[in-house]
């Protein structure tokens, strides 16, 4: 159903012009909103029924869109390879268009932010979308950014919705159009993947990601948050969620006893881990993991309570966790990348091209990160960290580390909808860094947070990054990411053709947090070592996990080897060609795919309900190193 506006007031003045009946339930829900909420006297008496009932709900849906990106449910309910928000899996294209059109019109009527905020909070509470505390604070957190962007965005409503609802994507969507960066010509001849000689020195490298330690985790609180009609469940559990007036835990507005108490060491639920579990993890690694040459941490330190983010709390968390790292791993280089949850609000990292950068930009954050990271980095990195939160340096004579701020590709970094063209020239900077390494005969490892194969990443950025991977396939020896919380990988292919030669692999590390419904895990890589002629390729990969259910039963956190990549999947090496061969075997070997899916989630619950279509999605996700390009990469599956 597509709505066409006519002169008049309210929903009765919209006529159905296409696809009759297709979205009746969505329209019914919107029509009912005015029955649930009392608007009150706020000086909008001249506003039409449409604006009174629908416009403020737009903000609710946009905020829920941001909010529910942290609330992806049990593993099998998650779009494979994506942290796309749940709410837009249920919001159809028509409803989204109506909502976004409305808020744009309201802003053009010069309605005050305070007026909109007041009604949005009331609507959120009365519809029981979230706990009252969350409703109030989520509006405070995101409203200003959303108002600012929508007033200045060049997008049409359909294009805005196309960012979140696949059915709304149009050929004219500017975020599906690649903006150019300069790709250096004269690519060297492709060489065979190097095979390190036996007995050569090696490096042992720890990969941590998505720590999400929650200082407000409360043992004994509800781990299985109450069901709600609109977004199924509250997005975050294991906290003292209470009704603001009575102070009692609520389920659908009723007092409730705890059904599933949060465990001392964590819960396999929509919960982050308590700090004690993070410190126990660091203690275990420091004691039992053996010699480490360096550590990679690919972002996301803050808990998922995105409604409570402030500059002060984020700064405290950054300093606390970096202090823990320094305490448990003295003398070991720690190389970090920025996560989207470091933003305040989440993902809000405006490039310098936007208006009011001095007050809206993330300079405060980049300054704090620069201070926190400086103990492990050379002074030469300071300028680029302060400018774009990316940096490069020579870890060894022939190994360059590049830490890339991929929050500049986040589809929830709303400032990009004002101008998304290579924010702060970051990909052009990456191209220059890769070219200088190529000319010097150096090898490169890239660490970053949001992988380019994930739908969270804007396609234009992902497409340009993919081009750089192909151009510099002889220089980029490894790519390490986080963000999804799952254990998987993405492939890159020559000419963007999955039937051609593989050019690269991005390893996505499993999260230390249990959010959502996963056990904590980390990886240790064996890398070709620092010697003359080293390839600095990945030689081996081990993944360790902790069974949180058992930890609560035994009152201690114990990590053990979950699997070795080469042994588990019968891989001769960890070259792009070997990963591609694994991918092809997954298409025909159901037992092998079962193993991959089990390791992906750190449990086997998914296998019970994963049908043929579901299983194909796991393979498609690994094949797609460019976000939102499944039709290109998976057409022959």
UniProtKB/TrEMBL annotation:
This is Sphingomyelin phosphodiesterase. It comes from Panagrellus redivivus (Microworm). The chain crosses the membrane at residues 49-67. One of its GO terms (molecular function) is hydrolase activity, acting on glycosyl bonds. Signal peptide: none annotated. The keyword Cell membrane does not apply. Its EC number is 3.1.4.12. InterPro entries: ASM_C, ASMase/PPN1_MPP, Calcineurin-like_PHP, Metallo-depent_PP-like, Saposin-like, SaposinB_dom, Sphingomy_PDE.
């Amino acid at each position: 159903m597509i709505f066409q506006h006519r002169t008049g007031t309210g929903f009765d003045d919209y006529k159905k012009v296409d696809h009759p009946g297709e979205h009746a339930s969505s329209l019914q829900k919107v029509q009912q909103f005015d029955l649930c909420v009392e608007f009150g006297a706020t000086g909008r008496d001249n506003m039409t029924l449409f604006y009174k009932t629908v416009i403020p709900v737009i903000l609710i849906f946009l905020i829920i869109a941001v909010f529910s990106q942290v609330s992806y449910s049990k593993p099998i309910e998650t779009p494979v390879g994506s942290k796309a928000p749940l709410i837009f899996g249920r919001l159809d294209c028509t409803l989204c268009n109506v909502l976004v059109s409305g808020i744009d019109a309201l802003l053009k009527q010069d309605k005050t932010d305070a007026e909109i905020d007041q009604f949005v909070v009331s609507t959120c509470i009365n519809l029981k979308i979230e706990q009252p505390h969350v409703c109030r604070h989520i509006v405070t957190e995101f409203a200003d950014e959303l108002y600012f962007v929508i007033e200045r965005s060049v997008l049409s409503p359909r294009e805005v919705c196309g960012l979140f609802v696949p059915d709304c994507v149009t050929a004219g969507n500017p975020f599906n159009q690649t903006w150019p960066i300069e790709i250096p010509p004269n690519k060297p001849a492709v060489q065979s993947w190097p095979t390190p000689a036996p007995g050569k020195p090696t490096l042992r490298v720890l990969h941590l990601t998505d720590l999400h330690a929650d200082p407000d985790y409360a043992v004994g609180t509800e781990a299985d948050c109450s069901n709600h009609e609109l977004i199924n469940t509250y997005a975050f559990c294991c906290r003292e969620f209470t009704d603001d007036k009575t102070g009692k835990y609520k389920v659908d507005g009723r007092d409730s006893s705890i059904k599933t108490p949060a465990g001392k060491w964590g819960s396999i639920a929509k919960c982050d881990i308590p700090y004690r579990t993070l410190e126990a993890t660091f203690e275990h690694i420091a004691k039992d993991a053996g010699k480490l040459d360096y550590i990679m941490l690919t972002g996301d330190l803050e808990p998922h309570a995105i409604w409570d983010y402030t500059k002060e709390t984020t700064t405290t968390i950054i300093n606390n966790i970096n202090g823990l790292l320094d305490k448990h791993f003295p003398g070991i280089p720690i190389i970090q990348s920025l996560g989207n949850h470091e933003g305040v609000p989440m993902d809000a990292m405006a490039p310098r091209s936007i208006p009011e950068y001095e007050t809206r930009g993330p300079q405060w954050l980049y300054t704090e990160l620069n201070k926190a990271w400086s103990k492990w980095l050379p002074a030469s990195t300071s300028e680029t960290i302060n400018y774009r939160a990316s940096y490069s340096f020579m870890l060894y004579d022939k190994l360059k580390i590049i830490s890339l701020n991929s929050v500049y590709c986040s589809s929830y970094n709303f400032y990009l909808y004002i101008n998304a063209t290579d924010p702060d020239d970051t990909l052009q900077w990456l191209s220059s860094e890769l070219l200088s390494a190529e000319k010097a005969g150096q090898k490169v490892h890239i660490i970053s947070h949001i992988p380019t194969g994930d739908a969270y990443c804007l396609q234009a950025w992902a497409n340009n990054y993919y081009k750089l991977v192909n151009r510099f396939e002889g220089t980029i020896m490894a790519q390490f990411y986080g963000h999804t919380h799952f254990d998987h990988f993405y492939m890159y292919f020559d000419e963007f053709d999955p039937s051609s030669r593989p050019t690269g692999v991005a390893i996505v590390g499993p999260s230390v947090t249990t959010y959502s419904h996963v056990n904590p895990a980390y990886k240790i890589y064996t890398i070709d070592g620092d010697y003359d002629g080293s390839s600095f390729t990945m030689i081996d990969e081990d993944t360790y996990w902790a069974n949180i259910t058992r930890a609560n039963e035994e009152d201690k956190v114990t990590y053990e080897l979950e699997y070795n990549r080469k042994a588990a999947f019968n891989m001769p090496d960890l070259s792009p060609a070997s990963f591609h061969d694994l991918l092809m075997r997954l298409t025909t070997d159901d037992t092998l795919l079962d193993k991959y899916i089990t390791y992906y989630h750190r449990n086997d619950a998914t296998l019970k309900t994963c049908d043929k279509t579901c299983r194909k999605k796991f393979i498609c996700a690994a094949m797609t190193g460019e976000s939102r390009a499944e039709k290109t990469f998976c057409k022959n599956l």
